[in-house]
Specification:
alpha/beta, 8-stranded mixed β-sheet, two-stranded antiparallel ribbon
Amino acid sequence: MRLAALALIFAASAAFLSLEAQQAPKAPVPVILSTDTGNEVDDQWVILYLLTDPAFDVRGLLSAQAPTLPDPSAHWTLGVLRDEVENHMGLTVHPPLVEGASTPMQDASTPQPSDAARFLVEQSKGFSSTNRLTVLTIGAATDTASALLLDPTLADRIRIVAMGFTNLQADGAEEFNVLNDPHAWQTILTSRVPVVIGTGEVCRHDLSMGYAQAQQMLANHGPIGAWLWDEYQMWYFSHVKPRRVADFTNKHVIWDIITAAYARGLVTTQTVPRPSLTDHTRFAAGQSGAMWETITHVDTVTLWKDFFADLDHFTATHSLPPYQPR
Protein backbone atom coordinates (compact mmCIF):
# COMPACT_ATOMS: atom_id res chain seq x y z
CA MET A 1 0.00 0.00 0.00
CA ARG A 2 2.78 2.36 0.93
CA LEU A 3 4.55 1.77 -2.42
CA ALA A 4 1.32 2.24 -4.32
CA ALA A 5 0.69 5.55 -2.54
CA LEU A 6 4.20 6.77 -3.35
CA ALA A 7 3.73 5.81 -6.99
CA LEU A 8 0.53 7.84 -7.11
CA ILE A 9 2.26 10.84 -5.55
CA PHE A 10 5.14 10.67 -8.03
CA ALA A 11 2.72 10.30 -10.95
CA ALA A 12 0.68 13.30 -9.79
CA SER A 13 3.85 15.38 -9.32
CA ALA A 14 5.10 14.47 -12.80
CA ALA A 15 1.75 15.36 -14.33
CA PHE A 16 1.74 18.72 -12.52
CA LEU A 17 5.28 19.54 -13.65
CA SER A 18 4.42 18.56 -17.22
CA LEU A 19 1.31 20.79 -17.19
CA GLU A 20 3.29 23.64 -15.62
CA ALA A 21 5.96 23.36 -18.35
CA GLN A 22 3.28 23.44 -21.05
CA GLN A 23 1.66 26.53 -19.54
CA ALA A 24 4.91 28.42 -18.86
CA PRO A 25 5.29 31.32 -21.29
CA LYS A 26 7.99 30.89 -23.88
CA ALA A 27 10.92 33.31 -23.87
CA PRO A 28 10.68 35.95 -26.62
CA VAL A 29 12.42 35.01 -29.86
CA PRO A 30 15.51 37.22 -30.42
CA VAL A 31 15.35 38.56 -33.98
CA ILE A 32 17.01 41.04 -36.30
CA LEU A 33 15.07 42.20 -39.36
CA SER A 34 16.68 43.18 -42.67
CA THR A 35 14.08 45.03 -44.73
CA ASP A 36 13.73 47.05 -47.94
CA THR A 37 10.64 48.78 -46.56
CA GLY A 38 9.26 51.45 -48.86
CA ASN A 39 9.73 49.25 -51.89
CA GLU A 40 6.27 47.75 -51.43
CA VAL A 41 3.58 47.68 -48.69
CA ASP A 42 4.19 44.33 -46.99
CA ASP A 43 7.38 45.18 -45.07
CA GLN A 44 5.43 47.69 -43.00
CA TRP A 45 3.20 44.91 -41.68
CA VAL A 46 6.21 42.84 -40.60
CA ILE A 47 7.84 45.74 -38.75
CA LEU A 48 4.59 46.50 -36.96
CA TYR A 49 4.08 42.86 -35.98
CA LEU A 50 7.60 42.48 -34.62
CA LEU A 51 7.41 45.66 -32.54
CA THR A 52 3.95 45.02 -31.05
CA ASP A 53 4.09 41.30 -30.26
CA PRO A 54 5.86 40.43 -26.97
CA ALA A 55 6.77 37.05 -28.48
CA PHE A 56 9.58 38.86 -30.35
CA ASP A 57 12.74 40.35 -28.86
CA VAL A 58 13.81 42.71 -31.65
CA ARG A 59 17.55 43.42 -31.46
CA GLY A 60 17.73 45.68 -34.51
CA LEU A 61 16.16 46.74 -37.81
CA LEU A 62 18.48 46.91 -40.83
CA SER A 63 17.75 48.86 -44.01
CA ALA A 64 18.35 46.81 -47.17
CA GLN A 65 19.06 47.99 -50.72
CA ALA A 66 16.80 47.65 -53.75
CA PRO A 67 17.46 49.02 -57.25
CA THR A 68 13.86 50.23 -57.51
CA LEU A 69 14.42 52.77 -54.70
CA PRO A 70 16.05 56.22 -54.88
CA ASP A 71 19.85 56.26 -54.51
CA PRO A 72 21.48 55.57 -52.16
CA SER A 73 18.72 53.03 -51.66
CA ALA A 74 19.59 51.66 -48.20
CA HIS A 75 19.84 55.22 -46.87
CA TRP A 76 16.44 56.00 -48.37
CA THR A 77 15.03 52.82 -46.83
CA LEU A 78 16.43 53.85 -43.46
CA GLY A 79 14.38 57.05 -43.65
CA VAL A 80 11.19 55.10 -44.45
CA LEU A 81 11.97 52.72 -41.60
CA ARG A 82 12.42 55.60 -39.17
CA ASP A 83 9.18 57.20 -40.37
CA GLU A 84 7.17 54.07 -39.54
CA VAL A 85 8.78 53.42 -36.17
CA GLU A 86 8.98 56.97 -34.87
CA ASN A 87 6.17 58.81 -36.65
CA HIS A 88 3.42 56.26 -37.31
CA MET A 89 4.09 54.10 -34.25
CA GLY A 90 5.18 57.05 -32.11
CA LEU A 91 8.09 55.18 -30.52
CA THR A 92 10.78 57.38 -28.99
CA VAL A 93 12.56 54.31 -27.60
CA HIS A 94 13.02 51.46 -30.04
CA PRO A 95 15.57 48.92 -31.30
CA PRO A 96 18.53 50.31 -33.27
CA LEU A 97 17.84 51.28 -36.89
CA VAL A 98 20.98 50.53 -38.89
CA GLU A 99 21.85 51.42 -42.49
CA GLY A 100 22.84 48.64 -44.85
CA ALA A 101 24.81 48.62 -48.09
CA SER A 102 23.19 50.49 -50.98
CA THR A 103 24.66 48.29 -53.71
CA PRO A 104 24.71 44.50 -54.13
CA MET A 105 27.77 42.28 -53.73
CA GLN A 106 30.21 42.21 -56.67
CA ASP A 107 30.72 38.46 -56.33
CA ALA A 108 29.97 35.65 -53.89
CA SER A 109 33.29 35.90 -52.06
CA THR A 110 33.60 39.66 -51.51
CA PRO A 111 31.53 41.30 -48.74
CA GLN A 112 29.83 44.62 -49.31
CA PRO A 113 30.79 46.48 -46.11
CA SER A 114 28.07 48.29 -44.19
CA ASP A 115 27.08 49.33 -40.70
CA ALA A 116 24.31 46.72 -40.90
CA ALA A 117 26.68 43.83 -41.64
CA ARG A 118 29.00 44.85 -38.80
CA PHE A 119 26.04 45.32 -36.45
CA LEU A 120 24.79 41.83 -37.22
CA VAL A 121 28.17 40.29 -36.41
CA GLU A 122 28.38 42.17 -33.11
CA GLN A 123 24.83 41.35 -32.06
CA SER A 124 25.39 37.65 -32.76
CA LYS A 125 28.26 37.30 -30.32
CA GLY A 126 26.04 36.37 -27.38
CA PHE A 127 24.53 33.45 -29.30
CA SER A 128 25.63 29.92 -30.17
CA SER A 129 24.73 26.88 -32.25
CA THR A 130 22.28 25.81 -29.53
CA ASN A 131 20.84 29.30 -29.02
CA ARG A 132 20.71 31.06 -32.38
CA LEU A 133 19.79 34.62 -33.27
CA THR A 134 17.05 34.61 -35.92
CA VAL A 135 17.72 36.93 -38.86
CA LEU A 136 14.59 37.71 -40.86
CA THR A 137 15.57 38.73 -44.40
CA ILE A 138 12.76 40.34 -46.38
CA GLY A 139 14.76 42.22 -48.98
CA ALA A 140 18.09 41.76 -50.70
CA ALA A 141 20.33 39.52 -48.59
CA THR A 142 23.39 41.75 -49.15
CA ASP A 143 24.06 42.64 -45.52
CA THR A 144 23.40 39.16 -44.14
CA ALA A 145 25.67 37.47 -46.69
CA SER A 146 28.36 40.13 -46.21
CA ALA A 147 28.26 39.54 -42.46
CA LEU A 148 28.85 35.82 -43.08
CA LEU A 149 31.91 36.68 -45.16
CA LEU A 150 33.21 39.20 -42.60
CA ASP A 151 32.96 36.56 -39.88
CA PRO A 152 32.45 32.97 -41.10
CA THR A 153 31.82 31.82 -37.50
CA LEU A 154 28.57 33.83 -37.68
CA ALA A 155 27.09 30.73 -39.35
CA ASP A 156 27.30 29.00 -35.97
CA ARG A 157 25.28 31.72 -34.20
CA ILE A 158 22.41 32.72 -36.48
CA ARG A 159 19.52 31.23 -38.40
CA ILE A 160 18.32 32.95 -41.60
CA VAL A 161 14.58 33.05 -42.27
CA ALA A 162 13.89 34.65 -45.64
CA MET A 163 11.13 35.41 -48.07
CA GLY A 164 12.64 34.55 -51.42
CA PHE A 165 12.55 32.45 -54.59
CA THR A 166 9.39 31.86 -56.62
CA ASN A 167 9.18 28.12 -55.99
CA LEU A 168 11.50 25.15 -55.56
CA GLN A 169 11.52 24.05 -59.20
CA ALA A 170 14.81 24.27 -61.13
CA ASP A 171 13.72 27.53 -62.76
CA GLY A 172 12.04 28.88 -59.63
CA ALA A 173 15.02 30.76 -58.21
CA GLU A 174 14.20 34.06 -59.92
CA GLU A 175 12.29 36.31 -57.52
CA PHE A 176 12.54 40.02 -56.65
CA ASN A 177 14.47 39.74 -53.37
CA VAL A 178 16.88 37.18 -54.83
CA LEU A 179 17.43 39.03 -58.11
CA ASN A 180 18.40 42.16 -56.18
CA ASP A 181 21.55 40.33 -55.06
CA PRO A 182 22.03 36.79 -56.44
CA HIS A 183 25.64 36.73 -55.22
CA ALA A 184 24.39 37.14 -51.66
CA TRP A 185 22.30 34.02 -52.01
CA GLN A 186 25.19 32.12 -53.57
CA THR A 187 27.16 32.96 -50.43
CA ILE A 188 24.36 31.92 -48.08
CA LEU A 189 23.53 28.64 -49.81
CA THR A 190 27.14 27.45 -49.85
CA SER A 191 27.66 28.36 -46.19
CA ARG A 192 26.75 26.13 -43.25
CA VAL A 193 24.25 28.62 -41.80
CA PRO A 194 20.74 27.16 -41.22
CA VAL A 195 18.24 28.59 -43.71
CA VAL A 196 14.45 28.67 -43.72
CA ILE A 197 12.75 29.87 -46.89
CA GLY A 198 9.21 31.05 -47.61
CA THR A 199 8.70 31.01 -51.37
CA GLY A 200 6.49 33.28 -53.42
CA GLU A 201 4.34 30.29 -54.33
CA VAL A 202 3.39 29.64 -50.69
CA CYS A 203 2.95 33.36 -49.99
CA ARG A 204 0.63 33.75 -52.96
CA HIS A 205 -1.45 30.76 -51.85
CA ASP A 206 -1.75 31.68 -48.16
CA LEU A 207 -1.14 35.43 -47.85
CA SER A 208 -3.09 36.94 -50.75
CA MET A 209 -5.48 39.66 -49.69
CA GLY A 210 -8.30 41.18 -51.74
CA TYR A 211 -9.31 44.82 -51.69
CA ALA A 212 -12.54 44.30 -49.70
CA GLN A 213 -10.82 41.89 -47.32
CA ALA A 214 -8.03 44.38 -46.60
CA GLN A 215 -10.55 47.17 -46.05
CA GLN A 216 -12.55 45.04 -43.61
CA MET A 217 -9.46 43.81 -41.76
CA LEU A 218 -7.90 47.25 -41.33
CA ALA A 219 -11.07 49.14 -40.37
CA ASN A 220 -11.45 50.29 -36.76
CA HIS A 221 -7.83 49.77 -35.82
CA GLY A 222 -6.91 53.35 -35.03
CA PRO A 223 -4.41 55.59 -36.81
CA ILE A 224 -2.01 52.74 -37.64
CA GLY A 225 -4.79 50.71 -39.24
CA ALA A 226 -5.81 53.79 -41.23
CA TRP A 227 -2.22 54.29 -42.37
CA LEU A 228 -1.86 50.65 -43.47
CA TRP A 229 -5.14 50.89 -45.38
CA ASP A 230 -3.97 54.07 -47.12
CA GLU A 231 -0.69 52.37 -48.06
CA TYR A 232 -2.56 49.30 -49.33
CA GLN A 233 -4.90 51.42 -51.47
CA MET A 234 -2.08 53.40 -53.06
CA TRP A 235 -0.22 50.22 -53.98
CA TYR A 236 -3.37 48.45 -55.14
CA PHE A 237 -4.45 51.21 -57.50
CA SER A 238 -0.95 51.75 -58.89
CA HIS A 239 0.22 48.13 -59.22
CA VAL A 240 -2.61 45.61 -58.74
CA LYS A 241 -5.96 46.90 -59.99
CA PRO A 242 -6.72 46.15 -63.65
CA ARG A 243 -7.92 48.80 -66.04
CA ARG A 244 -11.55 47.70 -65.72
CA VAL A 245 -13.04 50.29 -63.37
CA ALA A 246 -15.48 48.05 -61.49
CA ASP A 247 -13.19 45.01 -61.17
CA PHE A 248 -11.70 44.55 -57.67
CA THR A 249 -11.10 40.81 -57.93
CA ASN A 250 -7.30 41.03 -58.15
CA LYS A 251 -5.48 40.41 -54.88
CA HIS A 252 -2.23 41.61 -53.42
CA VAL A 253 0.11 39.44 -51.36
CA ILE A 254 1.48 40.41 -47.95
CA TRP A 255 4.59 38.44 -48.86
CA ASP A 256 7.14 39.16 -46.18
CA ILE A 257 5.08 38.41 -43.11
CA ILE A 258 5.73 34.72 -43.81
CA THR A 259 9.08 35.15 -42.03
CA ALA A 260 7.48 36.49 -38.83
CA ALA A 261 4.86 33.74 -39.01
CA TYR A 262 7.67 31.20 -38.97
CA ALA A 263 9.35 32.82 -35.97
CA ARG A 264 5.96 32.88 -34.23
CA GLY A 265 5.42 29.16 -34.87
CA LEU A 266 2.46 29.65 -37.20
CA VAL A 267 3.67 27.61 -40.19
CA THR A 268 4.29 24.05 -41.26
CA THR A 269 7.59 23.17 -42.90
CA GLN A 270 9.53 20.40 -44.56
CA THR A 271 13.27 19.81 -44.71
CA VAL A 272 14.61 19.12 -48.19
CA PRO A 273 17.99 19.05 -49.97
CA ARG A 274 19.52 22.49 -50.20
CA PRO A 275 20.44 23.68 -53.70
CA SER A 276 23.14 26.00 -54.91
CA LEU A 277 22.52 29.01 -57.15
CA THR A 278 24.09 29.50 -60.58
CA ASP A 279 25.25 32.81 -62.04
CA HIS A 280 22.10 32.66 -64.20
CA THR A 281 19.94 32.59 -61.05
CA ARG A 282 18.85 28.99 -61.42
CA PHE A 283 18.90 26.24 -58.86
CA ALA A 284 21.59 23.59 -59.19
CA ALA A 285 22.70 20.64 -57.07
CA GLY A 286 23.98 21.71 -53.69
CA GLN A 287 26.59 20.26 -51.40
CA SER A 288 26.08 16.62 -50.49
CA GLY A 289 23.98 16.32 -47.34
CA ALA A 290 23.16 20.05 -47.16
CA MET A 291 19.52 20.72 -46.26
CA TRP A 292 17.23 23.68 -45.76
CA GLU A 293 13.80 24.13 -44.22
CA THR A 294 11.01 25.28 -46.52
CA ILE A 295 7.65 26.65 -45.41
CA THR A 296 4.72 24.73 -46.86
CA HIS A 297 1.73 26.42 -45.19
CA VAL A 298 0.89 29.48 -43.09
CA ASP A 299 -1.84 29.41 -40.44
CA THR A 300 -3.32 32.71 -41.60
CA VAL A 301 -6.37 32.53 -39.32
CA THR A 302 -4.17 32.57 -36.22
CA LEU A 303 -1.66 34.95 -37.80
CA TRP A 304 -4.16 37.70 -38.56
CA LYS A 305 -5.96 37.20 -35.25
CA ASP A 306 -2.66 37.60 -33.43
CA PHE A 307 -1.54 40.53 -35.60
CA PHE A 308 -4.65 42.62 -34.96
CA ALA A 309 -4.86 41.72 -31.27
CA ASP A 310 -1.31 43.01 -30.89
CA LEU A 311 -2.13 46.14 -32.89
CA ASP A 312 -5.22 46.88 -30.80
CA HIS A 313 -3.30 46.40 -27.55
CA PHE A 314 -0.53 48.69 -28.79
CA THR A 315 -3.06 51.32 -29.83
CA ALA A 316 -4.80 51.16 -26.44
CA THR A 317 -1.57 51.48 -24.46
CA HIS A 318 0.29 54.12 -26.49
CA SER A 319 -0.36 57.72 -27.34
CA LEU A 320 -0.31 57.61 -31.12
CA PRO A 321 -0.04 60.59 -33.43
CA PRO A 322 -3.13 61.12 -35.60
CA TYR A 323 -2.92 59.96 -39.18
CA GLN A 324 -3.90 62.26 -42.03
CA PRO A 325 -4.74 60.29 -45.22
CA ARG A 326 -2.77 61.42 -48.28
